[in-house]
């Protein structure tokens, strides 16, 4: 008989598997989901908010249904859904590899690696710009790729895990402010913003709890986060900036145009050492929230 304990055990196993194995290089279910979304977009795209809303809701519903089916397999299904949804370990390992490349003086390799984390043009980034881009991405994706899945897994089990992962993947694919996606991707971006409101703020709370200077974290979040164009990214990026004693934000060049991002935090420009510290902080945040999510799931009511 399935119980809340089996889903809690599965969530713990999936989080542990991500910590040990990280994302598979080939055949990742999220990559296959993304490929299916891309194929359907080529056939169904229209410069319309209505069409984009149906597109996003349809795919999120399909992923949620798959998660509900996975939940019927008990701990095994929960573990598979959690491992599929979590991406924090890969994120931190890439950050460490970027820092290694910069320490070795290999800026081109660092640019190649950071291009897998950010949408901005890596060829325009110097060493400081690479570190800034990587720390910002690490902060944002600590919430998006690790904390948010854990929150949804704790509350709604495998259905929540895979449903959230669909939300975040759709936002990454079509939630841009470009001419093509301004209307079609509008719903995907808004749904992602809503889904990450709580996880982003929970991430900031845990960052402050782990930081040597919690006051600096809260000062940066209260003062700077609201000026960021994203209601969630600004919160976690400001929290990391305050914890690390660095400054993030500034001119950012994307394929769809240039954005002048607000300054987040007080201090120097980030270095490779700061990037390593950010990765270490991200790992600690993930462990704390994973333990809390498993305990919450174990104590909650049985859900499919």
UniProtKB/TrEMBL annotation:
Q: Name one Pfam family in it.
A: CobD_Cbib
Transmembrane helix as a keyword of this entry, yes or no, is: yes
Q: Does the keyword Electron transport apply?
A: no
| InterPro entries linked | Cobalamin_biosynth_CobD/CbiB (IPR004485)
- Which pathway does it serve? Cofactor biosynthesis; adenosylcobalamin biosynthesis
Q: What's the protein's topology in the membrane?
A: Multi-pass membrane protein
Q: Where in the cell is it found?
A: Cell membrane
Q: Which UniProt keywords apply?
A: Cell membrane, Cobalamin biosynthesis, Membrane, Transmembrane, Transmembrane helix
Q: What does this protein do?
A: Converts cobyric acid to cobinamide by the addition of aminopropanol on the F carboxylic group.
Family per similarity comment: Belongs to the CobD/CbiB family.
Write down what this protein is called.
Answer: Cobalamin biosynthesis protein CobD
This protein's species is Gordonia hydrophobica
The root-end lineage is: Bacteria, Bacillati, Actinomycetota, Actinomycetes, Mycobacteriales
Which gene holds the coding sequence for this protein?
A: cbiB
